[in-house]
Amino acid sequence: MKVALFIPCYVDQFYPKAAIATLQLLEKYGCEVTYPKNQTCCGQPMANSGFEHLTGGCDHNFVDNFKGFDYIVAPSGSCVLHIKDHLHDDRFPAEAKKIRDTTYELITFLTDVLKVEKLRASFPHKVGIHQSCHGLRGLKLAQMSELNAPPFSKPVHLLNMVNDIEIIHLERVDECCGFGGTFCVAEEAVSVKMGVDRVADHVLHGAEYITGVDMSCLMHMEGLLNRDKSTVKVIHIAEILNGGVQ
Question: InterPro entries annotated for this entry (predicted)?
């Protein structure tokens, strides 16, 4: 199984440990992983700002880098959803479609493709799970709380395999943190208030760590936690599943 590792810009620049943990997890389960070195931004920030028509260069570069692999995997639900919903290339339309169909967020790849049922990991901490909006509502990583339907959560399914972890209860299990990509720049006051409320729920219930599938949301909350001089930390779920803090 040949897997291309897609690492979003902000993970590459600010949170390389999440990228390394993703690589190591995939290799542990027998994947032949390649990192295309000429990859750059997928174009999501421009699209979020209303300039999707200017993302052609990003689309072409993505296709040039990622065509020919069995799967493409990334530790970011929002970037994966952008590729799956918006990637197009008039030069190679068939390749672009294949890429859209075979690009996976890490957790979905572990549960749905690799069908992981056992992990060798320990994380003896109280952990709050942040359900990022793109992962929840776009990639269907968990059941939306407003639906009258049987609950499920792919992140929880995997975290329950981790030894010694304690997953805390939250009052609002899938509330937005307020990051929203460029929303946090255009509407910073609203974004901060949403983030303060989201963080408060985790802190109130004793979280030592907040985890999730999108480092962007965790980055937003980390900034708020640091400004409040909180001892609560953020950690990408890949780092926990890969064995915890090294």
Answer: Cys_rich_dom
Is 13 a domain residue?
yes
Strand partners of residue 103 = 72
What b/e string do you get for 200-230 counting C-beta neighbours within 10 Å, with b at 16 or more?
Answer: ebbbeeebbbbbbbbbbbbbbbbbbbeeeee
Residue 121 belongs to a domain:
no
Q: What is the pLDDT of residues 88-121, one digit of tens each?
A: 999 999 999 999 999 999 999 999 999 999 999 9
Residues 141 and 56 in one domain: no
Task: Choose the final residue of a domain: 92, 113, 134.
Answer: 113
pTM over 0.90: yes
Cα–Cα distance for residue pair 42/47, rounded to 1 Å: 10
Distance CA 5, CA 34 (A): 6
Angle made by CA atoms 24, 158, 34, in degrees to the nearest 5: 25
195 located within any domain: yes
